[in-house]
Request: fold
Amino acid sequence: MKKLPPFKLIPEPLTNEAANLPKFKWADESIGTRHKLGGVPDFIQKEDWPDCPCCGERMTFYAQLDSINDEFCIADCGMIYIFVCLECNEIKSFIQSY
Reply:
């Protein structure tokens, strides 16, 4: 398994509509800021590291995408996790939440 070095992803609004989205009303300040590329996933629930369905090797963690606000909330302030097999070009993604 290859490991990508970690990068913090900082959402930059590309339109006025995106820039004017309200923040979360009740969620912790960290919710909405946990976007990340590479490194190690910040699992909300138990660790769930998939194996490639083609070669059977452990997949590389590629990214995690956080909820945005109350309107665009993934489950209960959850995140999407994305894994890739860089040999087979297979992907797996799933959601974890509180």
Summary: The longest helix spans residues 16-19. The two ends are 28 Å apart (CA to CA).
